Amino acid sequence: MDLTWLDFSVARWQVFLLVFVRIIGVIAVSPFFGHRVIISQAKVGLGLVIAVTLFSSMPVHIEPETEFLPYLILVAKELILGMLFGYTARLVFFAVQFAGEIIGIDIGFGVVNIIDPLSAEQISVIATFKNLIAIVTFLAIDGHHVLLNALIESFHMLPLGGIHLSSGVGEGIIDMTAQVFIMAIQISAPVITALFLTSLALGIVARTVPQMNVFIVGFPLKIGVGVAMIMITLPLFQVVLIKLFSDIGPNLSLLLTQMQMP
User: Fold this and answer.
1) How many structural domains does the chain have?
2) Can you give the pLDDT at residue 21?
3) What is the helix (H) or strand (E) element at residue 124, kind and residue range?
């Protein structure tokens, strides 16, 4: 292992800071690592460990900047790359939470919000449940390994100082963000379909038997149908999650390709 990183020259510390900033940007926004339940000190410590490991084991081809403003621009670019990297990997979790919110509102849990332990935000019970399953599935299929491997690969595809921010990058991020709505529909479709058929049946009953209080009957019925469908479709939900998680690697490679110098 190359231990020349222990040289306390200003130039080498400038380069090390660029490596650390890219990594900490990924950690701050990425799934699992970026959740608020993990304290900031742990995130910084993990970032330092990864940065030291990478910096001491891979060649770095960049001339240190002697001017403050150009160096500050380099730091900003590395931070933007890291945060976009983590954001791209986290899109599936945004879709899972959105799908959970849709299902929760349709079931009637729209007013029953709890503090999500991962995001520290108030979201529906269903969204929290699906988020936890998504996290467990992500770790079970070694999604965090895929993320770390892609981060290491980013230093080969996009060396320090080789980041090019263009309109194509913004368009690519917008296109991937738009896929969140499609993924949310795919995740929630079975439960939403069952709840729609339940509402349709209740509407027919209300017209056929006007004296029946459909609201009193329908509320617990939709909760029962919704919860039952969520449990029945759990295996399908995991299959969809695995498929969506398998797209994280290609999406990250696409992002890196779009940010390469023309």
Assistant:
1) 1
2) 92
3) strand 122-124
